[in-house]
Design brief:
By secondary structure, this protein is mainly beta. It has two helices and eight strands; from the N terminus they run βββαββββαβ. It starts with a strand and ends in an 8-residue tail after the last strand.
């Protein structure tokens, strides 16, 4: 049996930009991506703490060390710059493997730094 479990989580980062006229996605500082074990083009859920919005999109690499969290395209209408969000990805795996799997969860500091 296969189940879906939490793979990666960036907990409580601030949205630094919203770019309505860019192709849809979320741009994330590459340092945060590495720490959370996310890769470019990976599907993620974005949960906005301020307004309760929840959306799915995919990851684009942002400038390393910039603290960038930018919602692009239609997602830019569902968040505001300064909102706090949680970024989550899930993985499908065997039920028994899932019992011992440890997700990568990070808690960035102010400025979206590690």
């Amino acid at each position: 049996m296969q189940i879906e479990v939490l793979k990666s989580k960036i907990h409580h980062v601030k949205v630094t930009e919203a770019n309505l006229h860019y192709i849809g996605s979320i741009t994330i500082d590459e340092n945060l991506m590495d720490a959370a074990n996310l890769i470019e083009n990976e599907k993620v859920a974005v949960l906005d703490i301020e307004n309760g919005e929840r959306l799915e999109t995919y990851v684009i690499k942002g400038t390393r060390g910039s603290g960038m969290i930018c919602l692009n395209g239609p997602a830019a209408r569902r968040v505001s710059v300064g909102d706090t969000v949680i970024v989550i990805s899930y993985a499908r795996m065997d039920f028994e493997a899932a019992k011992t799997f440890k997700p990568s969860i990070i808690f960035p500091k102010a400025g979206n730094t590690l």
